[in-house]
Every structure is written in structure tokens, then in C-alpha cells.
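Quick question, first post here. What does this chain look like in 3D?
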Amino acid sequence: MFVWSKLSATKWSDAWEERFAGSNDATLVISSFPGRQTIRVEVYCATEKRARAIQKEWGGSVRQLKQQNWAAHASQAPPPVKVREKFVVCTARTNAELTKARKEFPNREIIAVPADMAFGTGHHATTATVLRLLVDLAEALNKSGKPWSMADLGCGSGILAIAASKLGASRVWGCDYDPAAVRISKENAGRNGTPKVRFSRIDVLKWQPKQTWDIVAANIFHDVLEAAFPQLLQSVAPGGVLMLSGILRTQAKDCLAAGKRAGFVVQKTITKGKWVTALGTVRA
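> Answer (accepted):
Ran it through. C-alpha cells below.
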């Protein structure tokens, strides 16, 4: 693990978040200092090559984070996240930790994503929001008695695809541009008892959907999202829905306008802090 770091003016905080929003190979951490107009920007990268590329573009410094330090950091697990009355998302890795979580929350399904897999553990506002929407949508679909399907685009840790499978989806597929995210998603699917969920490495800008899904969730860079709206909308089954997440408020107006031009009909937007999640359908 390598860390790129740089001091920056506080006013650029949103710009840094926008730059690294949705990145699956770089995890952004911003630290503020009371009484100062300066922030420390850190980006955690799996490879030195990625960290050096950021340094080349923005200056700053790169250091290697020793494995034992990263493990110690990861051991400071965040508290479990409750999703409606259905799920608890926790950072359990071992069977013993899973058993403990099940005993602590006997009336909820457990989704376990280890904390050191820096691809989304459900604690980010956008992931938690989409999980809640997914639970609500699944409840309505299950009441209809018809089988339903789900696609998780920009799957990260695979958490949404895993949740969909546990909620009763008959067909679930996830994809990501980052091969590490695909590998981690497969590991998490096995860990959570959903081995039938399929994951693939896909560049959505070159993707030509050969299937459609009743629920499509997309957590992708806003500029890629805007360019890929035609493919995303093609992947939604008739009567299905598209959920967009990971959009900063500063990006939302332009991003959703691009979606509208492509045929995306926004039904609901949810803002949590600086982040916007949108739910909608495809224009007939």
C-alpha cells in the first residue's frame, strides 16, 4: 500500500472529492485542522505506480504504508451499518467473526466486507442510500411474485450485488473496470454465501449490453457516467429502474441533465451531505 499526500487550501476540498469520486483504485482521505485554512489530502493506492501517477499530476509526496500499519489501521473496524430492518453490513472476515455478528443481530441478514478491502464497505453515504433503495425495490418486486434481476455497475466490493442476491434476485451480475475490484467482489460473494453472483471486468464506455435487468445500479465517475448513459439505459429492462450514485452535488445538475437528454426520467433524488443519489426509469 502506498500513500500520496499533499497540503491544500480548505476551499479546494470539494474539488479533491470530485477528482477522486468513485475511484476504485485510489481511496481519498481529507484531514482538516481546527483554526486553519489548510487540509491534508491523502490518497491510498494499492500500487506505487498509481501513487506516482498522482504525484506527477499534482506534486506532493509518496510514502509506502507498511503492511503491519495498514493491518492495524484496518483492525479499527467501523461500527456495523443497519439497512432498514433487513441487513447489517459489518467488516467480519473470519467464520468466528461472522458467527459473532449473527448472534449480535439474529433478526438481520449479515453482509460482511472486510475493512481492509478499500472498495466500499457500506459506510459511505451513497452506498448506504442505494442499499436502502434496493431493499425497498426488492420488497415491491417480491410481492409481485415475478422473478427479477439486478446489475451492479462499478461493483467495487460487490456489496450491492450480494445484497440483491440475498433479497431474492434470480439473476445478479456485477462489473468493474478495475480487475482488483472484480477479484475482491468474487471473494466477498463467496464469503457471504452468494457464489452464484457473477462478476466481470468491463469498460462501460465500450460495453454493448446483451441482456437487460430490472434494477441497474451504477456507481461510476460522473464524466464516464455522462458518456455511458446510452449503454446504461439500454441495460434496463422494460419497466425497470436505474439507480445512480457517487455523484457530488456540484456534478449533479450537469450529470442528470445529460441523463435526461439520453432518456433517463428522474423519479427521486436523495442528497446526503455532498453526495447525490438518483433513482429513475427509461423514457418510453
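The chain is about 35% helix and 30% strand.
The chain has two domains: 2-74, 122-282.
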